[in-house]
Write a structure and sequence with these properties.
This protein is 55% helix and 8% strand. By secondary structure, it is α/β, with parallel strands linked by helices. The strands form four sheets. It has a five-stranded mixed beta sheet, with helices on one face.
Length: 603
């Protein structure tokens, strides 16, 4: 019997707005979702008009017109508070990266200023972080500082291109367990790296445990441990609770909170002041502590990044710098974007985050920073939390933070050399120790073995080899699992009954792409063998994704195989567009999910 493939057409089906389709002799109806609404309803529930691209990119233009006095005062308080937090952190993170103090402050200054004009989240604070410091140390250890500056330029360029190309979705391929393992591994590395400075061990390489303990300097160890205890104690001040809520206790709670968030600045200031007074009474050589390097001049100057320079009787050109940095050119910006987007997600109010704009902004911060000799930067959770608690209203707070950092560069530069290394190490360790999160081990073991081994593998590789290899391991494992899932979708096959007739129901339990059609075909073939081709086969097609020629080829091959045994193939819940892609076949039927299955073939 010859069957003519009829054309699909829209028909007027009363007032229900249904679509009628005649195909292969079967009548199919598709419910239309068009509802006639009056203009008032449409205007009330229509989506908001998208802002002009200029307002979305130069984001300050979207809010500066409504900026008022109350917002300015709140941002002033938050900016000053953040400035007191970011100065000691910048000095400490520069030390962690193997750089002198001013390079961290350069990064804090320019990052805070640029984010005002392009940033979308008021709480985000761009500047040096422990993550960027350890990444910089990983790729630039024992190398000229010019390479660090070029790394900041290249990282900014990659981030800018990622934002322009709308590549924010890349971050989604890094699963949460890998991110947590990477963060915890980085924090452990910071603690391990800084423990030598905390205890005053001046050996570059410690050959044995005995040499480690024999080279501990009592004065530095006393200073470092005392600073850590003080920092942890001051951290608890913000959690003090009073039995009565009176105006006095409210003011006292505010004072304790300010002391708590300023703990880093207080520890660095008073330890440096102690050394300064010591030097005034005796001499710099008589100080029994290891001190920071002397800074000759710290005022920022605008100049091109050093794409070619001479250092130690060697001339570096741009290709030499690229060879020195290796994979860091791509891993540093990816890690920075990952951290920045995660922070932005944590503080965004309405749930709508423009990840590409955050990439653009971060790229501009690093590009501009490279012209001021800055190290690579990104957002920091600790500083963002301080901004949130300080009542920040808009990104304008970054102006005040930048001015405070600039003032520190112009006034405090000669005094940076009096800051003990042990106190800076204490600041770093007290900040990152709370980033070490081992709770996922138990949770992941109970919920997902794949994520458990991914976490363990990433964490161990971060510690044993390097942080970028640990992150890469987690990404590769995640991608392999995705590919396995795409290539082997889970298919449920059951024998069901409609009235007195039986049929084989094939239902994909996950989305089926072209990579999984062979698995689907194998399941249909296995079901036919199991039930000896005695029953029609109903395939639920609602989870067919990106229906293309591969799907058509697979379905027609299955149709021919079933036709040899006079088995009917019913494609359930297949869209009209997909139906039209299939050639005509005598043993194919179509139906909606809520329709009665056409289990009897036409005579």
């Amino acid at each position: 019997m010859t069957i003519t493939k009829n054309l699909s057409f829209d028909a007027s089906c009363g007032e229900k707005g249904e679509k009628y389709t005649a195909k292969n002799g079967e009548d199919t109806y598709f419910a239309s979702h068009n509802i006639n609404m009056d203009s008032d309803m449409q205007s009330k529930y229509s989506p908001p008009k998208e802002a002009h691209w200029l307002l979305r990119r130069i984001y300050i233009l979207s809010w500066i017109g409504t900026y008022d006095r109350s917002q300015a005062f709140a941002d002033l308080i938050a900016g000053i508070t953040l400035g007191l937090t970011i100065i000691p952190q910048s000095i400490a993170y520069a030390s962690l990266a193997g750089l002198s103090s001013e390079y961290g402050l350069y990064s804090a200054f320019i990052g805070s200023i640029i984010y005002v004009f392009f940033g979308t989240i008021p709480q985000v604070s761009i500047g040096p972080t422990s993550l960027m410091a350890i990444m910089t140390l990983q790729f630039c250890a024992d190398k000229p500082v010019q390479i660090v500056i070029v790394l900041a330029f290249l990282a900014g360029l990659v981030e800018l291109l990622m934002g322009i190309c709308q590549l924010g979705f890349i971050v989604s391929f890094i699963p949460a367990p890998v991110t947590k393992a990477f963060t915890s591994g980085t924090a452990v590395i910071v603690v391990i790296v800084q423990i030598k400075n905390l205890l005053g061990i001046r050996l570059k390489n410690v050959p044995s445990i005995g040499d480690f303990f024999s080279n501990i300097r009592f004065t530095d160890a006393t200073m470092g441990i005392s600073c850590i205890c003080l920092l942890l104690s001051l951290r608890l001040l913000s959690q003090v609770k009073f039995k009565r809520d009176t105006p006095f206790t409210q003011r006292l709670r505010k004072v304790l909170w300010y002391i708590s968030i300023s703990r880093n600045a207080l520890v660095v200031f008073f330890s440096g002041l102690m050394i300064y007074l010591w030097v005034q009474k005796s001499s710099l050589e008589a100080v029994p502590f290891a001190l920071s390097a002397k800074v000759s001049s710290a005022m920022p100057t605008i100049k091109l990044p050093p794409f070619a320079f001479e250092h130690g009787n060697r001339t570096y050109v741009f290709t030499d710098i690229l060879n020195e940095l290796g994979s860091g050119v791509f891993l540093v910006p990816i890690v920075a974007v990952l951290a920045n987007v995660a922070i932005a997600k944590a503080f965004v109010k309405d749930g709508r985050l423009d990840a590409s704009q955050e990439m653009l902004t971060l790229g501009l911060c690093n590009l501009a920073g490279s012209f001021f000799s800055a190290m690579p930067t990104c957002g920091a959770f600790t500083r963002s939390a301080v901004s949130q608690a300080s009542g920040v209203r808009t990104p304008m707070a970054g102006i005040y933070t930048g001015l405070i950092v600039l003032s520190a560069l112009s006034i405090l530069t000669p005094y940076f050399q009096y800051i003990p290394k042990a106190s800076l190490a204490a600041v770093l360790m007290a900040a990152v120790v709370f980033m070490i999160d081992l709770t996922p081990i138990k949770e992941l073991w109970q919920t997902s073995k794949k994520d458990f081994f991914s976490w363990i593998g990433s964490f161990i590789i971060c510690l044993v080899y390097s942080v970028e290899k640990g992150l890469l391991f987690g990404i590769v494992v995640s991608m392999i699992c995705i590919l396995l899932r795409l290539g082997n979708p889970k298919i449920e096959v059951t024998l069901k009954q409609q009235d007195s007739k039986y049929y084989v129901h094939v239902v994909p339990q996950s989305d089926v792409f072209y990579t999984g059609v062979d698995t689907l075909r194998a399941e249909i073939r296995s079901a036919c063998l199991l039930y000896r081709c005695d029953f029609p086969v109903v395939v639920q097609c609602g989870r067919f994704m990106q229906f293309d020629a591969t799907f058509v080829e697979m379905l027609m091959a299955v149709t021919k195989e079933l036709a040899q045994d006079d088995v009917l193939l019913i494609l359930q819940h297949m869209s009209l567009k997909q139906q039209q892609m299939l050639p005509v076949a005598s043993n194919i039927r179509f139906c909606n999910e809520d329709e009665e299955l056409p289990l009897e073939a036409k005579q």
